[in-house]
Amino acid sequence: MKVMLAIFALLLLVRAGVSVAAPQRYPNELEAYKFQAKAAWGALVPLHSSIADVRAILGRPREARDLGRYLSPYPGDEPALAPLFEYSGGADWDVYIYFVTRDQSEQAGPLHGLVGRVLSIDLLPRKPVSFAGVGFPAAFAKRHVVAADAAWDEYADAHGLIYEVYTSRPAHVDVRPEDLNRISYGAPGVPDLRPEVK
Predict the structure, then answer these.
(1) Domain boundaries in the chain?
(2) How does pLDDT run across 28-47, given as a tens digit for each residue?
């Protein structure tokens, strides 16, 4: 209820023309990539904001998918097993909103009972963005990830901010090693648990 009241108050302020910046939850954003505090999606709080909050703040998604039933039409928010919303983030970025899935919500751990809450807000560049020569501060831990179609280095901080930088050239997109895959804004202390396509 408090979240809904806060969103309602925020919408009233926006409608009145008052500039409201979201609180800075990601203090380690790289200087050239500081998006959270100024973006509309910046008001969303991973593990707190609901699907209804996302729709109230960002409107109808450009595309809604159920990653649990990827090849089927989106069944609606309530029956979806693993919802994914896609929004435009301007000329250069796509915004993907991942939600806690039913399976994740039923397991013990930090996601228990949080079905339908925002898991992460991911920014994907529409054109290749080179991260060659980008230095990450000591606040970031580096981990190498190998997937079926690509490999990347993941730089994660303690606040839930992750930068993924390709180390190989994936077959499905026109990028090179050292290009940015995505920036992910998640919850502190929660590992990357975005659902896979089934």
Answers:
(1) 2-24+31-185
(2) 999 999 999 999 999 999 99
